[in-house]
Amino acid sequence: MVRLLLFYFVISFSIGISKSTAQSIKTSTTELSQIQLDSSLLPYFETLMPYFPELNEVYINVKQRKQMIPLTTTPSIGNVFRKKQNWKYTIAISTESLKFLNPITVKNLSDSSKIGVLGHELSHVSDFHTHGRGYMIKVFFGHISSKYLDRFEFETDHIAIKHGLGKYLYAWSTETSEKIKQNKFKKQGKERYMLPSTIVLYMKKYPEIYLN
Ligand SMILES: [Zn+2]
């Protein structure tokens, strides 16, 4: 179970596999800047996008489908051959996961937690998009290592905090910790995703963003 927990938010590069096995949910789609998304998600992305001015012109397809991992952010494999301004990303949101993970799929989270976790995913996009191809390839191979993933996901939470999303990330971390008793498996200083107490510590590092 611990092992499984280690993987539950792993960003996935297995784009072909997930596409062929996952069932896309067809609902009304809309656009926000270059983001394709279900209209039900629009308020969350409208809240989030001002925190990510660097993604204003970036193509992101937000899909909802059945998949085991609650959320995945995937750079398109084709980015390797595309000019940077044409890079594309997919954020996939699970509508149905494993029984013990269902309580923390996006649809079952509070509004603040939804913004927190979607902000974490947009932080992945920001991270990829502010680096070059070499970084994308490094992350791809880095996924073999559990230790690498720990650092990678932790740093993604840090990126979200640097974007001003601390309170939303805190809401998400608190809700998921309560729902899946994550604290049993995570000690501060060794967690893959920041615990609420770690988020508070990191917010204090940025008094210019977090005034209180
Ligand atoms: Zn992540």
Shape: globular
Order of helix and strand elements from N to C terminus: HHEEHEEEHHHHH
Straight-line distance between termini = 38 Å
Percentage of residues in helical conformation: 40-55%
**Major sheet strand order:** 1-2-3-5-4
Give the integer mean of the pLDDT values.
86
As residue ranges, the low-confidence spans are 1-23
**Count the helices. How many?**
8
Largest sheet: 5 strands, mixed
Number of strands: 5
Give the helix/strand class: alpha/beta
- Which ions and ligands are bound to the chains? zinc ion
Q: In percent terms, what proportion of residues is strand?
A: 5-15%
- Using only C-alpha atoms, the radius of gyration works out to 16 Å
Organism: Lacihabitans lacunae
Protein name: DUF4157 domain-containing protein
Topology:
Elements lengths: L1 H6 L7 H7 L7 E4 L2 E4 L3 H7 L10 E8 L4 E5 L12 E9 L14 H19 L3 H10 L3 H17 L3 H15 L15 H8 L9
Parallel strand pairs: 2-3, 3-5
Antiparallel strand pairs: 1-2, 4-5
Helix pairs in contact: 3-4, 4-6, 4-7, 7-8
What would you note in describing this structure?
The protein has 212 residues and is an alpha/beta fold. It has one domain. Helices cover 42% and strands 14% of the residues. It has helices at 2-7, 15-21, 42-48, 111-129, 133-142, 146-162, 166-180, 196-203; strands spanning 29-32, 35-38, 59-66, 71-75, 88-96. Strands 1-2-3-5-4 form a 5-stranded mixed beta sheet, covered by helices on one side. A hairpin with a 2-residue loop joins strand 1 and strand 2 (35-38). Helix 4 (111-129) packs across helix 7 (166-180) and helix 7 packs antiparallel against helix 8. The relative contact order is 0.13. Mean pLDDT is 86; it is low at 1-23. Zinc ion binds at residues 9, 11, 120, 124, 153, 156. It comes from Lacihabitans lacunae.
